[in-house]
Design goal:
This protein is an alpha/beta fold and 386 residues long. The chain has helices at residues 17-24, 45-56, 69-83, 98-109, 126-132, 152-156, 181-194, 250-261, 269-280, 282-305, 332-343, 369-380; strands at 32-33, 92-95, 115-120, 136-141, 163-168, 197-201, 226-231, 244-247, 320-321, 345-346, 348-349, 361-364. The structure holds pyridoxal-5'-phosphate (PLP). Pyridoxal-5'-phosphate (PLP) is lined by residues 37, 97-99, 123, 169, 173, 201, 203, 231, 233, 239, 244.
C-alpha cells in the first residue's frame, strides 16, 4: 500500500494468497476449509502437561541465546539415533518455527544480490523471505506432467557465480513430492562443485509415505554446505507453539544467533520445553499422525481420480494434494473462487506457489475423512467437474 508512513520498499509488497483466506473463510457459514496447512490432529497431551509442569517450575524466563540447552542436546541425540548424524549443541539454533528459521538463515548468509534457487512450485514465503534478506530468487520450474522431477542438468544451468544457496523441500509443499536418493546425491555433488549451500527444509519429514526417508543431512552431515531447517508445526501438529530449529556449521549458527538477538532476542521458553517432550516421544506421537494423514491423503487422491478435469499425482508425502485443473479452462484463481462459491470449499490457488503452480489448486487434508468426503461430494457435483 502506498502511504507516506510506510517504507517505500513495501508499497508494492504483494499479499500472499494465504492471508486472503482469513476473509474468504467467512464468506459462507458452511465452508469446509482445506486451505491453510494447519493440521487438526490434537497435540499429544503429555507434551502440554510436561510443559505446564516446567512452567510452574520456573521455565518462564529468557533462555540461552542459542536456545534451551536441554532441547538442543535432545535434538542432537535424536539426529544421532535416527540418522547417525553426530551434531553438537553448538550446531543447533532454536527458532520460532520454520518460517522464522528460514528468514534468519537467509539474512545470515546472503550478501545483497546473492542468488537463491528455489524449485517451483515452492512454499509461498520463500520469495518474500529472499527479498527481505536482499537476495534474488532464481526459479527452477518443475511440471506435474513429469511428477515435479528435477532435471539436474537443467538445474545446473540456473547456477551462477552469485548462487549462494538452493532450497530443497522434500516432502514438498505444495506438490507432495519426495525426491529420491539419486536426486539428493546429485544436488549435493552440485553444491560441492559450485560451492553453495543446500537448505533442506525438512518440515514434513515424518509425513513421508515413500521408501526415501533419509533427511538430506544424513547423506553427508559433516558437510558445511548442508543446512537443515526444521519445525514442530507439522510433524508434531504444534503449529501454535511456534517452534523450530536450524542445524548448521557452528560459524553460521553463531551469526544466526547474533542476528536473532536483535529480532526476537530469545524464543518462547515454554514452547522450547514442549519441544523436549515432543522429541522424547517422537516415535509414538508421529506414528499416530502419519497413519491419520496417510489415510486422508489417499482417500482424497482416490476421490480426485474420479473427478473430471482434475488430475493428481500419487501422494508421496505431506498432507497436501496439488491437482491439475487445466481441463476446466479456468485459471487457478478463477477455480479457487468458483470452488468457494459453488461448493463452499476453500482451497488455495496453485499460482500462489510460483508460476509453475498455475493450472493447479492445493488441497490440504486438514479435516477428518467425514468432512473430506463432504467436501469432495460437493466439488464433484460442480458442473465444471462433471
Ligand atoms: N516450510 C514449508 C515448506 C512449509 O510448508 C511451512 C508451513 O506451512 C513452513 C516452512 C513454516 O512453517 P512454521 O513457520 O509453522 O514452522
Amino acid at each position: 500500500m502506498k502511504y507516506k508512513f510506510i517504507a517505500k520498499r513495501y508499497w508494492n509488497f504483494k499479499e500472499a494468497s494465504l492471508s486472503k483466506t482469513n476473509e474468504m473463510v467467512k464468506r459462507y457459514k458452511d465452508i469446509i476449509d482445506l486451505s491453510i496447512g494447519d493440521p487438526d490432529y490434537p497435540v499429544d497431551l503429555s507434551i502440554i502437561e510436561n510443559m505446564y509442569k516446567d512452567a510452574l517450575a520456573g521455565h518462564t524466563r529468557y533462555t540461552e541465546f542459542l536456545g534451551d540447552e536441554e532441547l538442543r542436546k535432545e535434538i542432537c541425540k535424536s539426529y544421532r539415533e535416527d540418522c547417525r548424524c553426530n551434531y553438537t549443541k553448538e550446531n543447533v539454533f532454536i527458532t520460532s518455527g520454520g518460517t522464522h528459521a528460514m528468514y534468519l538463515l537467509l539474512e545470515s548468509i546472503l550478501d545483497e544480490g546473492d542468488e537463491v534457487i528455489a524449485i517451483a512450485p515452492y512454499y509461498i514465503y520463500y520469495e518474500p523471505q529472499i527479498r527481505l534478506a536482499k537476495g534474488n530468487l532464481i526459479v527452477y520450474n518443475t511440471l506435474s506432467e513429469s511428477n515435479f522431477e528435477i532435471d539436474i542438468g537443467e538445474l545446473e544451468k540456473t547456477i551462477s557465480y552469485r548462487t549462494k544457496a538452493i532450497i530443497i523441500n522434500s516432502p514438498n509443499n505444495p506438490t507432495g513430492r519426495v525426491y529420491n536418493e539419486n536426486t539428493i546425491k546429485a544436488l549435493i555433488d552440485l553444491a560441492n562443485k559450485h560451492d553453495f549451500i543446500i537448505i533442506a527444509d525438512d518440515i514434513y519429514g515424518a509425513l513421508n509415505f515413500t521408501n526415501f526417508k533419509k533427511p538430506v543431512c544424513s547423506y553427508d552431515y559433516k558437510n558445511e554446505r548442508i543446512v537443515t531447517i526444521y519445525s514442530y508445526s507439522k510433524d508434531y501438529c504444534m503449529t501454535g507453539f511456534r517452534l523450530g530449529h536450524i542445524i548448521a556449521d557452528e560459524k553460521i549458527i553463531e551469526c544466526i544467533k547474533n542476528v536473532n538477538e536483535s529480532v526476537n532476542f530469545t524464543i518462547n521458553a515454554m514452547a522450547q520445553r514442549a519441544g523436549i517432550y515432543a522429541i522424547r516421544r517422537r516415535k509414538e506421537i508421529q506414528s499416530g499422525i502419519y497413519e491419520e494423514y496417510r489415510k486422508r491423503i489417499f482417500y482424497a487422491y482416490e476421490r480426485i481420480r474420479n473427478i473430471n478435469n482434475m488430475e493428481a499425482n500419487l501422494p508421496e508425502g505431506t498432507f497436501y494434494l496439488f491437482p491439475k485443473i487445466k481441463g476446466t479452462g479456468l485459471t487457478s484463481e478463477e477455480i479457487w473462487e468458483k470452488i468457494l462459491d459453488d461448493a463452499h470449499v476453500l482451497v488455495l490457488p496453485g499460482n500462489g506457489f510460483g508460476e509453475a503452480g498455475e493450472g493447479h489448486i492445493r488441497i490440504a487434508c486438514t479435516v477428518g475423512i467425514e468432512k473430506l468426503k463432504e467436501a469432495f461430494d460437493r466439488i464433484e457435483n460442480m458442473k465444471i467437474f462433471k
